[in-house]
């Protein structure tokens, strides 16, 4: 995939390694990242909120020392701005902190993590309603654009933005967002959003393409789906491979996490086969529901009557 940037097109590998986990044990993360680099992964997704930036940075340094990659330029690294830093004056310092933690001079992509702002210093999740405030999109995005102009990130984008939020952002952005990272899998297909993004030149990256089974925020509904199991059996593939292939065929980039060597290898084996029209008919009939209802993102007290009010009824 090619992203636009101030220094020309930036190549983004079409599958990424995700680093969000309930317990980010540093040694386990470093080992998994090194193994994934050996297998061919070059795209790594982190965030200040994940607690994985330090381990990822150490793994990159070790990969360079071992000669697994020739230079840092061989990798594509994404991080994200947390809502408590989504204030114009905190955007640049937050990116600079992430770079220090990662031991890097620049990111390939920096994303606004959520389309909301939280009181500075408040990092709790779910968000407390009394700490929420509407984002000043113009000033925050202007600060993101400045980060790109300074060369601290090659591209900028957003995460968890609805069509309505993107439309607003596009109406004033000097540098349009290159990416929107959202929950996307066969059980939450995001058809309207992906069509909007495609029409506006925004690449979709898909978090939890397998439903994040086993995590506190995840669901078993993707990996245990009988339709997907049937399709996997027909092709002699795993359910995970079917999901990742489906995301890839939508023109989106799956961000997938595994610390298991065999599954890491299997997750890359999605490029030499295709889903059939019959597969698409079956996937199209899967009942749709998101992994994490919007109401679970915000704790139950504060100035907003509902999370719908905060997100303009759309997310």
Automatic annotation (TrEMBL):
Keyword Oxidoreductase: yes
Entry GO MF terms: oxidoreductase activity, acting on the CH-OH group of donors, NAD or NADP as acceptor
Coiled-coil blocks: none
Record-annotated active site: 50 (proton donor)
Presence of keyword Oxidoreductase: yes
Binding site for substrate: 113
Keyword tags: Oxidoreductase
UniProt xrefs under InterPro entries: AKR, AKR4A/B, Aldo/ket_reductase_CS, NAD(P)_OxRdtase_dom_sf, NADP_OxRdtase_dom
UniProt domain NADP-dependent oxidoreductase: residue ranges: 15-286
An example Gene Ontology biological process: secondary metabolite biosynthetic process
Record-linked SUPFAM superfamilies: NAD(P)-linked oxidoreductase
Site (Lowers pKa of active site Tyr): 80
PANTHER family: ALDO/KETO REDUCTASE
Protein name listed in UniProt: NADP-dependent oxidoreductase domain-containing protein
Species whose genome carries this gene: Castanea mollissima (Chinese chestnut)
């Amino acid at each position: 995939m090619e992203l636009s940037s101030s220094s020309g097109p930036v190549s983004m590998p079409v599958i990424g390694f995700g680093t969000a986990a309930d317990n980010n044990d540093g040694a386990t993360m470093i080992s998994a990242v090194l193994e994934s680099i050996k297998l061919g992964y070059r795209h790594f997704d982190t965030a200040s909120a994940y607690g994985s930036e330090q381990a990822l940075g150490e793994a990159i340094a070790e990969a360079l020392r071992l000669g697994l990659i020739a230079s840092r330029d061989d990798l594509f690294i994404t991080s994200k701005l947390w809502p408590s830093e989504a204030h114009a004056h905190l955007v640049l310092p937050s990116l600079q902190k992430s770079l220090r933690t990662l031991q890097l001079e620049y990111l390939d992509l920096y994303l606004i993590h959520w389309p909301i702002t939280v009181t500075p210093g408040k990092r709790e999740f779910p968000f407390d309603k009394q700490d929420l405030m509407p984002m000043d999109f113009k000033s925050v995005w202007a600060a993101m654009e400045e980060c790109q102009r300074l060369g601290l990130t090659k591209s900028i984008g957003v995460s968890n933005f609805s069509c309505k939020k993107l439309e607003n952002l596009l109406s004033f952005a000097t540098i349009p967002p290159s990416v929107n990272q959202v929950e996307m899998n066969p059980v939450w297909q995001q058809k309207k959003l992906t069509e909007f993004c495609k029409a506006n030149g925004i690449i979709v990256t898909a978090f939890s393409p397998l439903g994040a089974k086993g995590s506190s925020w995840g669901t078993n509904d993707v990996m245990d789906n009988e339709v997907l199991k049937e399709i996997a059996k027909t092709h002699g593939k795993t359910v995970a491979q079917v999901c990742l292939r489906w995301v890839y065929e939508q023109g989106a980039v799956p961000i997938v996490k595994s610390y298991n060597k065999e599954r890491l290898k299997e997750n890359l084996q999605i490029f030499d086969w295709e889903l059939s029209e019959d597969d698409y008919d079956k996937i199209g009939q899967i009942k749709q529901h998101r992994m994490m209802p919007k109401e679970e993102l915000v704790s139950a007290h504060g100035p907003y009557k509902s999370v719908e009010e905060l997100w303009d009824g759309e997310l």
